[in-house]
Design a protein that fits this description.
The protein is α+β, with helices and mostly antiparallel strands and 335 residues long. It is globular, with a radius of gyration of 19 Å.
């Protein structure tokens, strides 16, 4: 559907079909754009549906951050307390707030592990508990590309008792989740690359913070891994939220209308060694100079809020590419 005044957004969405994608725009919580195109599968036999789920990579980071912020709102977590107050074996002297804002100094898993470790929650959390930070906590940001979800998810588990996947399913009742059920796995889209060189284009300079952060455990950019039942059943909250566009948009709309606590609160402005440019981090979201805030995901999916216009926007795609489609959509939104 397209509400009057949003026709240019539909044209922007249709300009470069990606063989399976969806766009939802909500204004004051009401849909003004809901579009899908393409197929769920590489063979192009199964049409994309409004409730199709797809791995949205880091677009899911604000979801696990919200789990922690909710517990803080309930008085169960002090954001300025050290992580070790809730996780006694945790050795890095970082606060919960520093983890939320990617300044804890733990952007990489410290012990080389095989791909199978993505399904071993306790192993990866134990590695993080014993890690020595790469940077002094609070001094510089380096997006915690793969570690973010385990750091915050284990905090949720220790404070609340529920796994992060169960907490999100029960407390954030939107059309997304981690550690999918067999039923939800049946509506997942298959990821594919826009070109064979996509993994190399997104590997980072050898030895760089980005390269090290995304390489261990291996497999997060391997189609055989991310399209597998094992990946979809695992809980890797930094990068394996499976979501519909409408699910992500409704999450942002709930923050805008106050149903969920605010997260667009500046915590750090400065260089991010993973991203390679200056950023402003809130509580799990990036704040942009134009007043919008949200998070993108590797491959081109994203969710964000535009509070000045009351808009919540989500674009998801199964073809891993860049943000060109999203940039056109954003430029076409009525001002």
């Amino acid at each position: 559907m397209i509400a009057p005044g949003f026709e240019a957004v539909a044209e922007a969405f249709a300009t470069e079909p990606r063989g399976g994608s969806a766009l939802t725009v909500l204004r004051e919580g009401e849909p003004v754009v809901e579009l899908v195109e393409g197929w769920r599968d590489v063979a192009r036999t199964d049409p994309w549906q409004p409730d199709t789920l797809v791995n949205v990579y880091s677009t899911g980071k604000p979801v696990i951050a919200m789990a922690v912020v909710l517990l803080a709102e309930r008085g169960l977590i002090d954001l300025d307390a050290p992580m070790s107050a809730y996780w006694p074996s945790f050795q890095t002297p970082a606060s919960v707030r520093q983890v939320l804002s990617h300044t804890a100094g733990l952007p990489s898993f410290p012990v080389p592990r095989p791909t199978s470790a993505f399904s071993d929650w306790d192993l990866l959390c134990a590695d993080l508990a014993e890690a020595t930070p790469e940077y002094e906590p609070g001094q510089v940001a380096a997006e915690h590309a793969l570690t973010y979800g385990h750091l915050l998810g284990e905090l949720v588990r220790r404070v609340d008792g529920r796994t992060p996947a169960r907490f999100v399913a029960e407390e954030l009742r939107f059309d997304f989740g981690f550690a999918l059920s067999d039923k939800d796995m049946g509506r997942c889209a298959e990821l594919e690359f826009d070109a064979p060189g996509w993994p190399a284009r997104n590997a980072g300079t050898p030895g760089s913070p980005k390269s090290r952060a995304i390489a261990n455990p291996p497999g997060a950019r391997d189609l055989a891994v991310v399209n597998s039942p094992g990946w979809r059943r695992a809980s890797v909250p930094a990068v394996n939220l499976h979501a519909s566009a409408t699910g992500v948009a409704r999450f942002y709309a709930a923050v805008l209308d106050g149903s969920l606590p605010a997260v667009a609160l500046p915590q750090y402005t400065g260089p991010d060694l993973f991203i390679g440019e200056e950023v402003t981090w809130g509580l799990g979201v990036q704040l942009e100079p134009d007043g919008t805030w949200g998070h993108g995901g590797l491959g081109g999916s994203a969710g964000y809020a535009d509070p000045a216009r009351g808009l919540a926007i989500a674009y998801v795609s199964r073809r891993l590419s860049d943000f060109a489609v999203l940039d056109r959509i954003d430029a076409a939104l009525p001002r």
